[in-house]
Design brief:
By secondary structure, the chain is mainly α. The protein has helices at 4-17, 36-46, 58-68, 120-135, 143-158, 160-166, 168-187, and strands at residues 24-25, 33-34, 96-100, 115-119. The chain is built from 7 helices and 4 strands, in the order H-E-E-H-H-E-E-H-H-H-H. The protein has a two-stranded antiparallel sheet with strand order 1-2. A hairpin with a 7-residue loop joins strand 1 (24-25) and strand 2.
């Protein structure tokens, strides 16, 4: 299995060569680009040098949901629908939702670079998996664990096949949560 930490180190090193303006390109190593400012933000957050982000703006949220209406969820490829003006729970699985790729709880921002539009089911399952992951730490996760989670979440949102290949444990937790939500839905809870 590829050692993801080395990948991240390599990519950060490559990125430094080109200066900070170039997004981290995993090229043939990983097919995602993680905005370097998001990683550094999360890192500053971990060291107590950055506050939790504020909530995301309503206009940005509406703009993104409108843009992605009728497109496919990047994780499960379900066609997603923008349910304007409706409050919904888990029952509308294909509703489009805005998601912080790096969750606010581990230092993600509410900037567009850190947002993704996914189906309600993937978004919720990911949130549940994240909570389970957080619960394993007695206090706070270490930066090393958090960084690993950040890379996984980026893959989960942008390249699920690679997420499964590199982080099978985290991937299976996510899939288990999806299945639990699905059966809850089938039972009509
Ligand atoms: Zn989905």
């Amino acid at each position: 299995m590829i050692e993801e930490r080395n990948n991240l180190e390599t990519c950060l090193a490559i990125n430094r060569l080109f200066g900070d303006h170039r997004p981290i390109s995993y090229g043939s190593i990983l097919p995602v680009e993680i905005p370097p400012e998001e990683i550094s933000r999360a890192q500053r957050f971990f060291h107590g040098k950055e506050p939790k982000t504020t909530t995301l703006s309503n206009s940005l949220k509406k703009r993104m949901l409108t843009l992605y209406d009728g497109k496919r969820c990047p994780t499960c490829h379900t066609v997603i629908r923008y349910h304007r003006g409706i409050k919904f729970g888990h029952e509308i699985a294909d509703a489009s939702t805005i998601e912080h790729v790096i969750p606010i709880a581990i230092g993600g921002s509410s900037e567009e670079a850190n947002l993704a539009v996914r189906c309600n089911l993937c978004n919720r399952a990911s949130g549940h998996a994240m909570n389970e992951w957080l619960q394993q730490f007695k206090e706070e996760p270490t930066w090393d664990s958090a960084r690993r989670m950040i890379l996984y979440l980026w893959l989960e949102t942008h390249d699920i096949t690679m997420a499964e290949a590199l982080y099978p444990q985290l991937y299976y937790t996510f899939m288990r949560k999806k299945e639990q939500l699905n059966s809850k839905h089938r039972r009509g809870d």
